[in-house]
Amino acid sequence: MQWTLVIPLKPLARAKSRLADTAADGVRPGLALAFAQDTVAAALACPAVSDVAVVTDDTLAGRELAELGARIVPDAPGSGLNAALAHGASVVRQGRPRAPVAALNADLPALRPAELAVVLGAAAQFPRAFLADAAGSGTTLLAAGPGAELRPEFGVDSRARHRASGAAELGPGEVNSVRQDVDTGSDLRAALALGVGPYTAAVSAGLLIPGS
Predict the structure, then answer these.
(1) Which residue blocks in 17-151 are alpha helix, DSSP H?
(2) I want to staple 115 with a disulfide (CB 3.0 to 4.6 A). Which of 10, 158, 165, 175 is the partner?
């Protein structure tokens, strides 16, 4: 099964406010973009992924991620993360009504293509399925197979909400790179320990990471 990934990205100027203890206001937009670049590059290198659609209204991010090979979908609803994801999935399926789609966080800078393939392979066994984040309360990936609606419930306690929505919780083996999103300095330290991609490595060099 070949998946289309839908990746949401808010305007860079408003991204990653919880990294204030790690990166100054002028650094965080570049860090958020680097996370997205490494995420998109790894996703496009995954053998289970046919294409990537990034939902964003940020001009710089759209240009940089398009250069990597992503399709850029304007955030027409402009009403939050879940609306953006539902819109992105709808746009993808306008041309391919039964395409399997998966929502993926844009802040997975340590993402490994092989580990993403393992998660998507597991997701293919269910109409809808999700992967919890490293913290245990959130979600980094929500998948909907052919004929199933995505029905995203991202946000606070999304793991519980996705489970309550009927999505199967995935528990494949060592897929830490798909679970490790980055919201805080501690998260960034964990991602760096896993090994981040070149964009994040370049931007994070010289940052004082809490606890490092």
Answers:
(1) 28-44, 59-68, 81-95, 113-123
(2) 175
For residue 173, CA distances in Å to 89, 102, 129 come to 27, 19, 16
How far apart CA 76 and CA 164 sit, in angstroms, is: 28
**Over the stretch 69-109, which tens digit does the pLDDT of each residue have?**
999 999 998 999 999 999 999 999 998 999 999 999 999 99
Q: Is 3 exposed, middle or buried (0-12, 13-18, 19+ CB in 10 A)?
A: buried
What is d(CA 205, CA 147) in angstroms, rounded to the nearest whole number?
44
| Cα 59 from Cα 130, distance rounded (Å) | 30
| Residue 34, number of CB atoms within 10 A of its CB | 22
Q: In DSSP terms, which residues pair with 139 in a beta bridge?
A: 132
